[in-house]
Structures are given as C-alpha cells and as structure tokens.
Amino acid sequence: EIHIKEPIEKEVNPRLLPGELLLCEASTVYKYMQEDGSNRGTYGKLVCTNFKISFLDDDSASDDNEPQFKNKIVGENDITLQCVDQIYGVYDEKKKLLTGQLRKYPEKLIIYCKDLRVFNFCLRYTKEEEVKRIVSGIVHHSQTPKLLKRLFLFSYASAAPNNTDGRNQTVMFETLEDWRDELERTKGNVKYKAVTTNEGYRVSEKLPLYFVVPICISEESILKYEGRGIPIWCWSCHNGAALLKMSAFPKEQDDSTSQMQKAFLDGIYKTISKPPYELLKMDDLSSSLPSLQDIQTAYTRFKQLFLIDNSTDFWATDVKWFSLLESTNWLEIIRRVLKKAIEVAECLEIQHTNVLLIEESATDLCCVISSLVQVMMDSYSRTKSGFQSLIQKEWVTGGHGFLDRCNHLHKSEKEEAPVFLLLLNCVWQLVQQYPPAFEFTETYLTVLSDSLYVPIFSTFFFNSQHQRDTNKSGESFKTQSGPFRFLTVWDWSVQFDLKAQAFLNNPLYAEKPKPDKSQRKTARFKHQRQLSLPLTQAKPSTKRGFFREETDHLIKNILGKRIGKFINSSDEPPNSLREFYDSWHSKPVDYHGLLLPRIDGPEIKVWAQRYLRWIPEAQLHGGGTIATAAKILDLMEEVQNLQVKMDEEHSQAVSGDVHSVPMLRNSARLSSLFPFALLQRQSVKPALPTSTWKDLEDEDDLVKRDDEFVDLSGDML
Questions:
Q1: What's this model's pTM, rounded to 2 decimal places?
Q2: Could you read off the pLDDT of 529-558 as tens digits, one per residue?
Q3: Angle at the Cα of 316 from the Cα atoms of 313 and 319, rounded to 5 degrees
Q4: Hey, what CATH topology would domain 22-144 get?
C-alpha cells in the first residue's frame, strides 16, 4: 500500500543557526508527498529547535539538484515556529486540532503553515517515546503563549556575528535627518515640520521618536492628549496637497471630556483648514472600510481554499472554485481598499485638497491607504529602495502592531488581522497590471510576505519603535555589553545569494530617464505634468463637501457630533470619481506618473504565485507568465550581446546589467509558479477527481458530473 523509500542509514544532523538549539527529535518519521493519490513519501528525522521544525532525509545531506531560488535561512522542509498556523493529529482516520497538553498521541501529524504549505507526517513507525517528545515539543513551542524575549530573534541577535551588507539604501526613518530629507524630497517642508517633541517617548510610546506635523501645530497641542487629535504628515503631492493621518479620540467619553476634546479639535482644524486656499477633507476609515475583524474573517475563509491536504480534496473543490472564492469576500475587500485609495488620489490630484485619514490608533488601515496612495502617485515608491523606505516610514516606525496583528506570541487571537498582507495583495494587483512601472517583481512581494514569519529580523517582530528600543538591551543574556544588533529584512543577502536576488528585480522596469542639465528646468515642469496624467478638466466647485449629495447618510461623529464630511465609500463610484477613473484609463499610461488600478469585476485577481505555489495540480509546465518572461529575457540577453559586439569600447557599461538578469533556460520545463515550484515536478492530474480511498458510490456520482469539470490550472491562473 505504501511506496517507501528505504530509511536512511547515515546520520543527518540539522544545520543550526547561531543561537539555535535542538530541543527534541524523532527518527523513522515518514513524510508523505501529496502530489498524487498514492501514499508515496520518504523516511527521515523530524526535529524541533527554538527556531524551526525541520524534516531531514538523505536529500538534506547532499547539495545536488539545488534549486535556482534557494532561501539560505529557511529550507524547503523547514517551518519556522512563527510560520505554524495550526497542527492536527489523526486518530483512527479522524482529524483533531492539537493544542496544549495531550493525553493521547496521534499516528499522523498534519502541520498547516501561514505561507500555505501543508506537511503530512506518519508516526506509526516511530518509537512511542520519541512520538511523545516530538509531538508535545512541536505543539508547545509553536502554539502556546510566550514572552517577547523568548523569541528566537533575541537568541540570534546575541549569538550571530554582525556582518550585514552596508550597501542597503533603505531609509529607516529613525533619525530627524531622515524625516527632513523626505520633506525636502516631496517639497512638503514649506507647510510641515519634523518635530522632536517625542524624544524619550514623553508624548506617547505608540508614536515614533520623530514625526512630521503642520508648521502651525504647537508642542503644547501635541503633548495635551498624548498625540491624539494631531494631524501627522504622511506625504505631499507635487501640487502641495498633503496626505495626513490622525489618531481619533475614544468614542465613549463623558460629556465634559467630550466637550473639551471637541473644542481642541475645532482649534486644530481651523489651523490647517483655511478655505479657499487650504481645503481639508476628512475620512473616518473605521466607517468607510471593513473592520479588522471582517478582514480577518475573510482571509481565514480565503486561505482554506489553498490549504489542500491531498489531490482528492483539490479536485473536489475544483468544481465550485469560483463560488467558494466569491463567498470568502477577500477579493471584494481588496477592491474596496483600492477604490478608497483612488478616491484619496482624486482628492489630492484633481481637487488639490489635503486629505486627513482618521482611525482609532492610525496604525492599521491608515497604513494601508497611505502606502497605497504613495505607490500610486509617487514613482519613487515603486522602486525597490523606495518601497522599502515606505514600509519603514508608514509601518515599522509608524507603529503598526506586527507582533499583535501576526499573533507572533500567541497571546490573543482577537488582535490578529492580516493588515500588512492586505497591503501586499493590493500592491500585487498594481504590479501585475503595470509590470514596467515597478522595479521589483511579484517574487519580491512573495518573499516579503514569507519574511513576516522569519524571526531573525526585527522589522516585523515589534509593535512600535518604543517596544523595539526598550528591548534592545541584552541584560537578561550573558552576552557582550551593549544592545542587541538586530538585522533588518531589507538586507536580502541574509536570505538569498546574488543569483537568487536577481529574481527580486524586474528586468523590464521602465527606468526613469535622467534629464540633461541643459533641459533640467523644462524637464522638471514636464515631470510635474506627467504626475497629473491623464488630466481631467478641474471644474471650480462651490461644494466644499466631498461628493456632497452622497454624504448625508455618512455623517458620523468621532466625538458624537463633530465631523460631518467624509470621503464616500458606496458600492458604485460617484460621478466625479467615475469621470476621473474613466478619463485616466482612456489615455496612455505614464509609468512614472499617476497609476490607477483597474478595479472593475474580474480585474481583481488571485495572487497565484503566493497562494497556489505549493499545489502541483495548479501548475502549468512550460506555461504562465514565466514562459513569456523567459522568452523576453533570452531576447534581452541576445540584444545585450549584440550591443557589446557593436560597441566594444563601451562593453563594460552596456553589459554591466547582464548578470542581473536571471537566465531561465529550458522554459518548457519551468512551472508557471516558478521560482517556488520545483522543476519537472511530477503530478498526476486525473480526468475525474477519483481516488483509491473514495467509495464506488462517490465515484459513480462524480462520473455523472463529468461535463462540469474544467482544467483548474487554466482557470485559477
């Protein structure tokens, strides 16, 4: 019944990182390969460390057949403890969720990962004592609540040598100078200033050390309510309009407190809203976008479509794939978020109006919308270093609670929500709609989403800059004196060698031409017009509300009665927004100007590379976008070689980028989900979703539905 590979005789030991300790292990564990209906697999050793769960077979010991795209930290059979989503045990063919103390130990172990991998281990041939140790060890270290300082992040930082790549161009926004440079880059320094009021975190532990506010805001105002009710600058448009965010006051307050806060807000608004010269539009995201709970519920349903145990389950869901996908509501949430970003862009670009995003903490949906608007309106944010600097500015120093939202410590599932993943999904829509506009690829976004669960980088493992700074001291460890030196995820050399890093860069990126010095003045003016492309005639309007006719039912109050004008988020775009949207899409795209995503109907797609990469049945061998890319790269290489021959004296300059293009030979052998899917991966695709363990009655039923089946690999991609 079981096609077995003989147990390995030679001892295979795990490759441990600095600070990594082996906690428990089990020999003669059988790992299933769920690529077809059989129970094929391989024997090996299952180990658990303070960093990861790892399966070691005889292939682990050899470096033969290494993939082109290999992660140096997390291997193909490695699962970091933070990447474990749920663990199930199989008892007499029945699945049971494993948490806490176990009375009985399972004969099979199924591990579902947050990067959507599924591992199936058979423990029937393993010694009973080893089964108890490995199962209880894995469940305890990956599923139970833990203290922050118990994260592997601290063990690694105290033991690893500090030899990071110093060529990282990402702006970290940890100094006052970084903020001043950003103000100067966006020409926002005329109306806004970087402040040092929060040095020593005397205003709030949730705010960064340095941030930017309107020039007219006083230090006393910032200190009064711990930063609440203060408009904080995100970005300035080329026309002077700015994107701001604000942390709202709690809605349930007693009358006297509410009156004081209302008077305070009145004063703040008067200083930054001076019609007709300075207009201000306010948008309470908590009322115009789905709640974090709705986002979490939708994503939980959505990911279930891709956590496939076996081939049978896959083909069973194939019949109703589109209805299941729609019922999750995940793509609809992405559409609504993109639509909101378009609304804000229209306000800044066409109406020349400042937009103030309001949220309870201004660290969740505010981060999503402000980041998306900058990616759409600022071509610098579409470069690799620019996008990384944007994440640092809006998310890392901006105070997004990665620790709580990713539930890294397993403290509370109520706080969990895939907010950062939502942003990456939205950015992916833009990347796949306008590939030449981005310096990075979808592979870059995929490995960035995977890096959320790799606890050797500090980037995604703190709730705030204050939390990171206060936990930097190494007093609880017997280490050298001085603070921990955490790694940043932006140093890609830690995870990938140069050959693999090439897959993160887009060889077809339409790089911005550098203007000649003699034409610099005209070029600058031209660039400003390009930012506005496509132009629509701006009609002077007496209406100061945004979509006045639709805002009556949206009048909500952060304090009870104060704010009555919000950017609308109805199901259908209002006329002015629709006009702006249609006008832009009717004209040629300027890849260095404004980008508006297409959001109608089927334009919002599933991020296939991230969600389908571990499902063999969903792969097209020799097909998909990678096949097209391979042909284009071959052509580029040929052109570059011809250019070298034609102009040998400039060969060095011309061929300098040749090695940055990953060579994809034999594109017919590549999977459509390359570089994550293996080359020549075998998968038996049945004409009907039958299997050896389905009873005949089910088979007969499925035969009758023969005509309903479609080829999933074509439909899903």
A1: 0.84
A2: 334 333 333 344 443 333 333 334 333 333
A3: 145
A4: PH-domain like (2.30.29)
